[in-house]
Backbone:
């Protein structure tokens, strides 16, 4: 598995330059209602995501990682799965910013254009992709994420535990759903959450623009 | 086997040894209704489906756990089996009016192996607070010594060669309704107000007997 590919890393992450800032979601905290409540955003962004950013800052202060781009910290602390201490906070800070940007008010449903064409090419149909993404999100045991990713000119669904993301697995990340336990507790209806995300929240515009960047970086 | 004598799940969703509202205000009835009534129940139900028709069907829960751990390369039934076991053990680790400093032999051994109860408290607290993502923190007994262990997801000390004596569930579903993201407050409440020292002491006796 590739671990450090500067060109890919820079192009695909152009939209996410966290640099240890708690960037707000690109919509008001109540804008995803009724599908994702303001209360969830207040906690998930306002407390959990904020804590990852704050703790990362404390963790890298005075170290050689201080001031380095977030993606650099993630790549350099993954350590082939034997995680160095800053990894979890750095990756979770990155993952959460990416997650907010993966959603939009009035989102979800079937995409169109090139993205649909590629989904149909690599999964046979949008419905097959939907089922595979759904299954990955439903079966990631414990805390983690499910992703649509792009590697070797192909789309694929990936699931990862805890803070791990496809960046360290050599893929471009396009979209994902946070399978962290925080949502499991919420009535434990994980499948309902995943369905709501797919049907009502996904920002296909964000996914499409990331796909363009991924293809450009791969060519 | 001796250490798990009190937990013979056999794929039954055993209720906690107290009413679902009995741990209030430290752990709400709503938490118990979801955590036991939905999450724990799902592990038991899914395990039953998973082993139906297989060679594991009808085997004791501990047998399934030991035989599907596979040195960390988990076989499919492991997560449901271990989570069923862990949760029953967790409910029995608590009691209404629990918590606080133990006494007698348990205290003596904590002082022997951790220097003081306070040192044990801090170590257990740190393990529970730093288990990233989903998991558990444990007081366990191995090689005639008490120790604190933290495990990810469904892993428990049975597969690591120790006798579990006490556990706290630090999956977010265990504390989110009552504490949201304030895991440290949850851990403190568990230690000060919920731990059943009687359960821990009786498991310790069983562990010592099995080790001798």
Residues:
């Amino acid at each position: 598995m590739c671990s450090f590919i500067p060109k890919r890393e820079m192009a695909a992450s152009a939209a996410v330059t966290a640099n240890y800032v708690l960037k707000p979601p690109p919509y008001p905290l109540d804008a995803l209602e009724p599908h994702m409540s303001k209360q969830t955003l207040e906690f998930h962004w306002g407390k959990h995501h904020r804590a990852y950013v704050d703790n990362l800052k404390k963790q890298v202060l005075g170290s050689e990682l201080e001031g380095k781009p977030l993606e650099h910290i993630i790549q350099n602390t993954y350590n082939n799965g034997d995680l160095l201490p800053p990894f979890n906070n750095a990756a979770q800070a990155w993952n959460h910013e990416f997650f907010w940007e993966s959603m939009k008010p009035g989102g979800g449903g079937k995409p169109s254009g090139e993205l649909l064409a590629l989904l149909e090419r690599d999964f046979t149909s949008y419905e097959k992709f939907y089922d595979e993404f759904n299954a990955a999100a439903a079966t990631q045991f414990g805390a983690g994420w499910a992703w649509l990713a792009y590697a070797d000119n192909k789309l694929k669904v990936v699931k990862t535990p805890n803070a791990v993301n496809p960046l360290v697995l050599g893929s471009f990340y396009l979209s994902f759903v946070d399978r962290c336990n925080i949502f499991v507790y919420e009535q434990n209806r994980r499948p309902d959450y995943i369905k709501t995300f797919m049907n009502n929240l996904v920002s296909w515009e964000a996914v499409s623009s990331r796909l363009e960047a991924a293809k450009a970086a791969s060519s």
